[in-house]
Model the fold of this input.
Amino acid sequence: MKNLALLILLSCFGVSAQVQEKMNKNAKYQIEVNGNCEQCKKRIEKAAFSVPGVKSAVWNVETHQMNLILNEEKVSISDVKKSIAKVGHDTDEAKATKEDYDNLHGCCKYERK
Done:
């Protein structure tokens, strides 16, 4: 009976370690993304979520900061930044092309650096 209890206890620890390892593959990032309004927010977040491996993407209109949670085994932070740039919004690493920026609605055009 003691052996059975010990076996069950060890099995629980093994499963717990596997879950912990899986959770550690997710990484949190905060990046700056240029934009102005709620329309920008929707576009930026949609672009981030279009990249497989992005678990969470929330952009703040006032601070221009985006909080990301992503699975680093599936995606890199630079992949997300490139996706955001393709819809017309600059990040520190990836800049939108002039054509992509020009396609933004008038209220969404921010001062480019």
Notes: Residues 7 and 88 are 56 Å apart (CA to CA). The chain has a mean pLDDT of 88.
